[in-house]
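Q: Could you fold this chain for me?
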Amino acid sequence: MTLKTRITVSFVLLMAAVMLLVASVAHLAYVAMEQYIFGESMRNEAQWLALALQQGYALEVPPGRQLYDALSVPQALRNYPLGVHELDQPEQWHLLVFESNDQRYYLLQDSTYFEHLEPMVDAFMLLIVVLCIVSAFWIGRLTSARVIAPIKQLADAVEHQAQPLPFEQASDEMGQLARAFAAHKHTLEQFLQREQAFASDASHELRTPLAIIGGAAETIAHQLPTDSRLLGSAERIVRTTEEMQRQLSCLLLLSRAPETIAHTNVSLRPLVEECVTRARPWLGQKPVALHLDAPEEVTLHTNAELARSVIWNLLRNACQYTQQGQVRISLSASRLAIADTGPGLPPELNPHGAERFAPSVSQGGEGLGLSIVLRIAEHLGWQMQVDSSEHGCCFTLLMGHSSPALANTHAK
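A: Sure. Below is the predicted structure, expressed as structure tokens.
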């Protein structure tokens, strides 16, 4: 329930409880008052009858009343003691048992009028209860609207990043909440500035050394004889340097807000083919076939650098861990699947954690961690599914808006 609904319900429940208590007390008071009125009325009448009997007057009992002496009283009334009694049979009658001249008399009085009045009183009380509950509902609605109005105003200001926040100077609870929001926002802004500054500085400081390393490695690779044992190491330095430059660009993009990243219409098939070409050295001499199934051209409005990083890291990981069989890439309008026949995901890895792709002893493992790959997919608005078994693993990138939620995510 919303806060407004909770306040309204509280008002209604409180009013209902109070009115039910008041109605119960009023009903008991009415019953007690009725008994008191009947008792006093019948006692006064009994005094008049006793005086008439003592003076020998002929008794004329008013309508609605019956008088019996000890001889004429019905058997059902004989056992009642002195005093006023409410009879069950016949219904709606009251009995007064009194004595005069050492004789016992029984006076019956019809209480039908008062018994009919009781439901009217109860109905009136019920009407009052209903009216009070309805009034409590509207009072609760109006009160809750006034109570939550400052909260909504503060929430809108936080959502639209207004500066300064309303109620910051207030001394009540709203002021405390506004100042807490402002302090938390200031802390987050400082953290974001530090993170962006670090990413920018690291990118700037690392680009030049990487360019120097890459240039020197290319020079060495071109100058080495074709039969030199160092040629493979030099070419690997070149590839690793290029990969580090791409990862550096990717991490710099990740430090920015998703809405600030430039998107263009990217043709995915050439991008996937480029990643396939780069991944072939990872297969080496292993008996693994690399297949690309892309029957049609797919154009997607996205960021090319981040899309390339996701595809490359998933494909490189599949090629790295598949020792035999095949690695297949399937591309369609809103779906990209990379399946392999490797050993599957290690069961000891936490499927919900941020483990990195486990490094390979033979290859060195320069790939990005799965946690970063998931962050890139989130920045692009993609979702990822992972199906793993002992017969292989399949990463599926869902690039459409109606993709299902991320499921069974593991690290490899």
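A (continued): Helices lie at 3-55, 112-159, 173-223, 231-254, 268-283, 304-321, 370-380.
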